[in-house]
Amino acid sequence: MNALLNAVEAAHPDSFDQTDDADAAIVSQPLPTPGALKKAIALEPAIKEQIAHQRQTIRNILNGHDSRLLVVMGPCSIHDRDSALDYARRLKELANEVADSMVLVMRVYVEKPRTTVGWKGLVYDPHLDGSDNMAEGLASTRRLMRDIAALGLPIACELLQPMLSAYMDDLISWAAVGARTTESQIHREMVSALPMPAGFKNGTDGGIQVAIDAMGASRHGHRYPGFDDNGHPALLHSRGNPDTHLVLRGGHQGPNHDAQSVEKAAFALGAAGVSGAIMVDCSHANSGKDPTRQPLVLDEVIRQRLNGVSSLVGVMLESHLETGKQPMGAALRYGVSVTDGCLGWTDSEHHIRCVAKRLTERSV
Ligand SMILES: O=C[C@H](O)[C@H](O)COP(=O)(O)O
Ligand SMILES: C=C(OP(=O)(O)O)C(=O)O
């Protein structure tokens, strides 16, 4: 990594100078370009093919050509490599076991949107100590995602800072735009260029129209300023992304996974002429941020699906090795979330198996 940074410094010596404007609020530090990092931590052709296949499987579920349930599950945020890989190995085994009725995709969330301030994720601060070594965070993220993909798991990730998506977009099979950014034109432009399906969450106030508008905006091509793979400012031309959908995550007024809210959302999607596929996030405002309530939300979604609500194609769970969450601090407990509380592995596995059984019994 240092060699990469030295090469960047040699090519752009000015960018290392601190500004001499005493009023300026920023100091710049160089980062590798997306192209350089992708070359340094490259994907084997077999992994690229696997990811293309996994994206297509997810598209098929969204389009109704594959009747399995899409399940995006994993930690609220990734904060250490060992527990992420430990989780991934367990998830892969479970994914194989339930493959007839479900497609499990691992949440590998490395950027966190904060309500005010807080730790912003592995990419920003891989040492969790405020040192913000983003060059290292980007490299660790790529290595981790590559290793998880090598286990055969599809990866889900929220894309928050549009500039960072280019460092990892080749590794992701399903992308999320979060409740705090769905309304942003910049994020809609970003999604219009993504090579994978993407879910737009409803807003934090519970409003679904922002997500429907986002789907309408991102299926069109856009021209917008950004950076090319070599890090040069460029006018980017996107083709538009036809594979977007709504994610219901509840809002300030409470949950929105009940039958009436789902029916209302399906009607609004139909009226707008966008994809009718809906994923329910069993966490966040749908569980009142109490991880132990996620199975109740899951149960209700499966009940509706088994009653014929075909728009419900997916669910999301925040799940880690251990239940709950912990504050950031010196001695972190292994496998416990440092952001939102998660359902522990034993419960997660149990509930996924129960759902698989219910789905399988119904289809025979
Ligand atoms: O899923 C994550 C959180 O809900 C989101 O990042 C906001 O977190 P915060 O309110 O703790 O900042
Ligand atoms: C931040 C997340 O969700 P939301 O945008 O719904 O708050 C998340 O899923 O990690």
Describe the protein's architecture and organization.
With 364 residues, the protein is of the alpha/beta class. The protein has one domain (44-363): Aldolase class I (TIM Barrel). Helices cover 38% and strands 14% of the residues. The protein has 11 helices and 10 strands. The strands form 2 sheets. It has an 8-stranded parallel barrel with strand order 1-2-3-4-5-8-9-10, surrounded by 6 helices. Strands 6-7 form a two-stranded antiparallel sheet. Helix 7 (185-192) crosses helix 8 (209-218). The model is unreliable at 11-19 (pLDDT under 50). Residues 76, 109, 113, 158, 178-180, 201, 249, 281, 284 line the site of phosphoenolpyruvate.
Question: Which key features would you list for this structure?
Answer:
single chain, 364 residues, alpha/beta, TIM Barrel, two-stranded antiparallel sheet, 11 helices, binds erythose-4-phosphate, binds phosphoenolpyruvate
What topology does this entry show?
Blueprint: H1 2-11, H2 34-40, H3 45-63, E1 69-74, H4 81-97, E2 102-107, H5 134-150, E3 155-158, H6 162-165, E4 174-177, H7 185-192, E5 198-201, H8 209-218, E6 223-227, E7 233-237, E8 244-248, H9 259-272, E9 278-281, H10 294-306, E10 312-318, H11 345-363
Parallel strand pairs: 1-2, 1-10, 2-3, 3-4, 4-5, 5-8, 8-9, 9-10
Antiparallel strand pairs: 6-7
Helix pairs in contact: 4-5, 7-8, 10-11
The chain binds erythose-4-phosphate and phosphoenolpyruvate.
Erythose-4-phosphate binds next to loops.
Helical element count? 11
How are strands sequenced across the largest beta sheet?
1-2-3-4-5-8-9-10
Can you identify the CATH superfamily? Aldolase class I
Radius of gyration: 20 Å
What small ligands are held by the chains? erythose-4-phosphate, phosphoenolpyruvate
Instruction: Sketch the topology as an H/E string, one letter per element.
Output: HHHEHEHEHEHEHEEEHEHEH
Family: Belongs to the class-I DAHP synthase family.
Pathway: Metabolic intermediate biosynthesis; chorismate biosynthesis; chorismate from D-erythrose 4-phosphate and phosphoenolpyruvate: step 1/7
GO molecular function: 3-deoxy-7-phosphoheptulonate synthase activity
Catalytic activity: D-erythrose 4-phosphate + phosphoenolpyruvate + H2O = 7-phospho-2-dehydro-3-deoxy-D-arabino-heptonate + phosphate
